[in-house]
Amino acid sequence: MKLVKVKGIVIREVAYKDNDKIITILTDTLGKVSAIAKGAKKTNSQFLASSQYLVYSEFVLYQNTSYYYLNSASVINTFYNLRIDFDKLQIVFEMTKLINSVTDENQDCDKILKLFLNTIYALDKYEKDTKLIINAFKIKLFTVLGFAPRQDKCANCSKSLLDSDNKSVYYDYINNNFICEECCTSVDLKSKIQISIATYNAILFVIRSDFKKIFSFELKSYKDFELFGQVFTDSVLSGL
User: Fold this and answer.
1) What is the per-residue pLDDT across 10-53, written as a single tens digit (0 to 9) for each?
2) Does any domain span residue 50?
3) Secondary structure in 3-state letters for the chain
4) Residue ranges making up the domain that contains 188
């Protein structure tokens, strides 16, 4: 029996048989995997804590047929404060639902794991608007997956968006690019949303920054940032 040691966080748990669970773990080396935690529902189980949603652990797994099984587990972080905060927990549910929908079993998820861990740490520790955090997460997630919008230049006239005097830009969610303010009178705006130049710069910051820094910005208003996050997410998911 070959044992494999991984670090990972439980992003889904399902009851299985009388006392077992099937847990979905986002791991550092195996990708996203399903594993059976035998006896995990028993109060005296060694897997009682490590098989719970949002618990980050070091797991030792072995594989039998199509499933991995837990051999042992050591809890690293339970993120207890998040799990008892209903509002923040709802945000985490949204994130894990999104991760599950855009990843496959055994797909390389190391970067997604790092992004998710940094995001829930930010939710737990930072005094940041939760709308900023969840939408920065979405933008970075799809950047990691290869769906970052075309940046810097206007898709219509090719002028630099960073060097212009634009007070706003338009995001074309059909073609996943940006259009400058000067071109807005000469293009069809039906499939585009208007965002402030400050929001545009914040989006670029998130796309280009390290996972630990993507929340290190401020905006007077997060309205445009939230709008972009929602529209960008919907447009990418509709194309998958």
Assistant:
1) 999 999 989 999 999 999 999 999 999 999 999 999 999 999 99
2) yes
3) CCEEEEEEEEEEEEEECCCEEEEEEEECCCCEEEEEECCCCCCCCCCCCCCCCCCEEEEEEEEECCEEEEEEEEEEECCHHHHCCHHHHHHHHHHHHHHHHHCCECCCCHHHHHHHHHHHHHHHHCCCCHHHHHHHHHHHHHHHCCCCCCCCECCCCCCECCCCCCCEEEEECCCCEEEEHHHHHCCCCCCEEEEEHHHHHHHHHHHHCCHHHCCCCCCCCCHHHHHHHHHHHHHHHHHC
4) 126-240
Residues 60, 150, single domain; the answer is: no
Do 33 and 132 fall into the same domain?
no
Q: Quick one: 155 and 221 in the same domain?
A: yes
Q: Are residues 149 and 234 in the same domain?
A: yes
Query: What domain count does the chain have?
Result: 2
